[in-house]
Amino acid sequence: MLAMDKFDQPYNPKETEDKIYQFWEKSGYFNPDKLPKRHKKPFCVMMAPPNITGHIHVGHALENALNDLITRRKRMQGYKALFLPGKDHAGIAGQYVVDRELRKQGSSRFELGREKFLEKMWQWMKEYGDSIDNELKKIGISCDWSRKRFTMDEDYQEAVRAAFDYYQKKGWIYKGKRMINWCSSCQTSISDLEVEYLEEKGKLWFIKYPLSNSPEFITVATTRPETMLGDAAVAVNPKDERYKNLIGKKAILPIQNREIPIVADDLVDKEFGTGAVKVTPAHDAVDFEIGQKHNLPSYEIIDKRGKMTRESKVCEGLTVKECREKVVSALREQNFLLKEEDYSHNVGVCERSKTVIEPMVSDQWFLSMKDLAAQAIRAARKNQIKFIPASRKQIFINWFKQVKDWNISRQLWWGHKVPVEGEGEVLDTWFSSALWPLATLGWPKKTRDLTTFFPTDIILSAREIFFLWIGRMVFSAMELTGKVPFKVIYTHATVLDSKGRKMSKSLGNTVDPLTLIDKYGADAVRFGLVWQVTGHQDVHWSEDPLIAGKKFCNKLWNASRFVLQQIGIPNSQFPISNKISNFKKLTKADKIILRELRKTIKEVDKNIEKFQFGQALQALYDFFWHEFCDVYLEASKAQLTDPKRKEQTRRILLHVLANSLKLLHPFTPFITEEIYSHLPIKDKTMLIVENWPK
């Protein structure tokens, strides 16, 4: 029994939260196999595995608070609930951050060599992997830590090899020269989805290309004059009347003094610049397509270090920026530069290093997407997966309609090796992550966990990995098991800063959830995060809801103290039941609070089932603060002085408080477990496995 003098002090989360988490872990109830016998029907939600590149951020806190909310409610409803945790090795990002640390120490991965560098990577994983687990525990995440997985575990690597072998036997994996995105800083190819586009205020240069055997010229407009050294043609739109008489003729490439054809292609935008564009097949995705159709040569003038090659001739060894300056100067001197204009456009950069991406042709491993994409589209159209919000369904379908073959190889040291003899490359991080709902449960082996928990029930995801991760998990599971991997895809809001900007370390606007927990307590942080999730609009960060959460926890604490004081006898056992002993003796205030409780239970259930978590919390807040504390607690004071009403009033106070704690537990688990553990209720158990109110 909780000593009443403890309630005389304000609620102190620092004295409670670590103790309660240890209490939960000792109980074993995070593990679905150790739940009471009434927990029979399986329920499974997977954590989106944080990268081992640092600490968790406020976005992780929001996503995992929602996952935990769902899991805790399902557990109380009698489900055999599994919340499976884990971490991702984060190929490019993982290698980048460790390489950066080495550079700070005056070293590099090349200086260490592959073997020593990989030892450093495992040390990093151990250090940050453990800290991420501890940070999630601080938030109160009720994962089954005995099942935690890492995408570089040996059995996970076995699953990756099995998937690669399967696709290869189907004839869907091939190696070929294709246009890819190259990061000269990370020294690897990256996916289209890993390219971030930033607005750049640059120039649009208008360059005269003389016509062969003619005093006339055709003018092209470009934002990248340095790549003209690798031009193979000039292209115009076949419907552009201005250039119909030039199609099939030849032009002379300035500086290089090379004859190139003028071709017609529908990919040319008539409205851009002059309507005539330079074609550099080796260094532009659209130009590569044009080059393939018109059988144009490919001149590789930029290498993987971001330096100009021998084929560029006049700029060999220069950086791209230095080459641009030299080319523009030469064009001006030779009277080929007609004019230049200020021009703002989007420039692709690596989302990790922020280095400008160089499109280039490279020999890479690809996975054919034709049949896989068709399966994903079919699953969406047949409503085998529910999308929250519903608008994500068509976005999902549209992306798979135009998806290209997947470049699955990366030129890294850290990651899953391409399982081909003599191959030194690794697989794209997302190739292994796409197997997350399968490999974590034991696939390709037919394990008990795979049989019990797959397909999983729901996956929560931020928008930015909707295609990178969610879409790829869908087609991977469908092809490898014949089943969709989850029944519901919930795309949650993104937490932006107060100015509406995406949080990033470079902007210095990130929010550390552990600092917030230290300031307000974990329950208040969870309260504040969930409170703002009232739809699918992004959340503009503010600490005001956290302050409200802290005040609410204090209100809950003080109201519980009042109820315990009225019950009086420290060791008394009041059976809690939905049945009140004598309805005829209920006062008007009694009837109202019981009716409002019943209504609140229904409203909370309805909102959670509709994934309206903020609305569910707000309904609970209004009921407890206003209906219970402001109204009924005040009315009960007079009723408790009446001998005829005292016993019934005490039972109702305890009944309403106990059920309020149950409803609040998924939202604010620490304080509710602490208070509930001291309520004088007969045959009670821990709140984490108590029956959800009906």
Mean pLDDT across residues: 91
CATH names the topology of the largest domain as Rossmann fold
CATH superfamily of the largest domain: HUPs
User: Radius of gyration over alpha carbons?
Assistant: 31 Å
In terms of DSSP E residues, the strand content is 15-25%
Cα end-to-end separation: 27 Å
The main sheet comes to: 4 strands, antiparallel
Shape: elongated
The CATH class name of the largest domain reads Alpha Beta
Which consecutive residue ranges, at least 5 long each, have pLDDT under 50? Answer: none
| Arrangement of strands in the largest sheet | 6-5-14-16
User: What structural category do the secondary elements indicate?
Assistant: alpha/beta
Instruction: Please work out how many helical segments DSSP would assign.
Output: 22
Query: Residue share in helices?
Result: 40-55%
The CATH architecture category of the largest domain equals 3-Layer(aba) Sandwich
* Oligomeric state of this protein: single chain
Quantity of strands, as a count: 22
Supply the number of structural domains.
3
How are the elements arranged and paired?
Elements lengths: L3 H4 L5 H15 L14 E5 L11 H19 L3 E5 L1 E2 L3 H14 L4 H4 L1 H26 L9 E2 L3 H16 L3 E11 L4 E3 L4 E16 L6 E6 L10 E4 L13 E4 L4 E7 L11 E4 L5 H10 L25 H14 L3 E14 L7 E10 L2 H12 L4 E3 L3 H11 L3 E2 L1 E2 L15 E2 L1 H5 L2 H4 L8 H6 L2 E6 L4 H16 L4 E6 L3 E2 L16 H8 L1 H10 L7 E2 L3 H24 L20 H22 L3 H27 L3 H22 L4 H8 L18
Parallel strand pairs: 1-2, 3-4, 9-11, 15-20, 19-20, 21-22
Antiparallel strand pairs: 5-6, 5-14, 7-8, 7-13, 9-12, 10-11, 14-16, 17-18
Helix pairs in contact: 2-22, 10-11, 10-15, 16-17, 17-18, 18-20, 18-21, 19-20, 19-21, 20-21, 21-22
